[in-house]
Amino acid sequence: ESDILIPISANRFFSTRDRNVFLRYRGLFISSYLWCTILWSVGSGYDKFDRKEGIV
């Protein structure tokens, strides 16, 4: 039986330790990114909208 989508030589076994290390660093990166955006108030810029003056 031939596997067309994934060649057998491309299958690599990842140990549980390798997987957990990858997931740990991914989680640390995502959480640090989210905390930085919260603490630095990213995206909460100053917008002035005045209908009388026509200032946006």
TrEMBL record:
Keywords (alphabetical) are: Membrane, Photosynthesis, Transmembrane, Transmembrane helix
Q: Does the keyword Transmembrane helix apply?
A: yes
- Record membrane topology: Multi-pass membrane protein
The residues that cross the membrane are: 21-42
Report the subcellular localization: Membrane
Q: What is its main location?
A: membrane
Q: Name one Pfam family in it.
A: Ycf4
Q: One GO term of the cellular component aspect?
A: photosystem I
Name the Gene Ontology biological process terms. Answer: photosynthesis
So which domain of life are we looking at? Eukaryota
For this chain, the family text in UniProt reads: Belongs to the Ycf4 family.
Functional summary from the UniProt entry: Seems to be required for the assembly of the photosystem I complex.
What is this protein's name? Photosystem I assembly protein Ycf4
* Species: Nymphaea colorata (pocket water lily)
